[in-house]
Amino acid sequence: MTTSSLNTATEEGTAPPLKDIRRWFGLSKLRYGMLAACILAQTATILITWPLWQVREAPVHLPAIDLPQIPFGVAILATLLLTLVRPRIGWCVHVAALLLSFVFDQFRTQPQVIANAILMAAALDDHGLRVVRWFLASLWCWAGLHKLLSPDWFTFNAWSITTSLGLDPSQFGELVGWGVGLGELTVGLLAIFWPRGASIPAVLMHVGIALFLTPLAHNWNYSVIPWNLCVAVVGGWVMWTVSPRLPQFRAEWIAAVLLLLYPAGFYVGWVDHGIASVLYSGGIPDGLITTESGSEYIDGWGDLRVPFPNERRLLRQYFARSAPVGAKLHIADTRTLLGDLYYVKRADGQIEEITQAQFFASAPGVVAGIALDDQYTVFRLGNDGATMLKRAVDAPIYAVQIDPSVYQPEMLPLLARLHNLEQLNLAGCPVTDEELARLPILPKLQGIGLANTTVTDVGLQTLLRQPKLDYVEGEGSAITSEGMAEFLERRSNEIGND
Question: What is d(CA 259, CA 275) in angstroms, rounded to the nearest whole number?
Answer without folding.
Answer: 10
